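Are you able to produce any protein sequence you like plus the matching backbone structure tokens because I've never seen that pairing?
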Amino acid sequence: MKSASRASLESSLPKSEATPIVFVVDDDISVRESLELLIRFVGWQAETFASAEEFLARPRPLAPSCLVLDVSLPDLNGLELQKLIAPDRIDMPIIFITGHGDVPMTVQAMKAGAVEFLTKPIDDDALLGAIRHAIERSSAALGDEREIEALRDCYASLTPREREVMKLVVSGMLNKQVGLKLGISEITVKAHRGKMMLKMKADSLADLVKLGMRLGLTTARNPWHALQKQ
């Protein structure tokens, strides 16, 4: 591998509290050992695997992570592994490495969401830059996932009636219309709405509409209709 300057290595140091994990899947032991040394020197954790099957047996990590993946692997190759894990693992971006890549292979990998496609011998600076970018994406994805989980917990704390009120309010209905729809008084709607907004930690209707969008309770078109009517 081509050498990288110490300055460029230090600039790649992760800034998140949880030390990121860089997974390496390559059937060439010399490549695995070389990449492991480089990754650990920069300050990230490194875990190496000789095959896709070995990697698949590893439990999902909680820390930010990325996968440095060789295209040519025994049995299950890199592109096939990508198909298996990419849909459910947006928090683990993939960087492909190969000794004999071609345009169709690169296009297939990138269309499926790969961060980078590098050809061996790998330039250290290019690889570290790709890993840094992948880890930033992973951290953002994990942050979004935690926010959604917290939001779902808040939504789960609502009573069935409060959920009905929330769904109708974020769809654009006025309190009076919600009352007619549910067969309750406008005063009762306001009471449910107040409790619901408190549990959802929404300071305004705009906040509530955004939360409703994230929960899939309303479409991107309806929220502005809801805000204009209130």
Summary: The radius of gyration is 24 Å. The mean pLDDT is 86. The longest strand covers residues 65-70. Residues 69 and 96 are 5 Å apart (CA to CA).
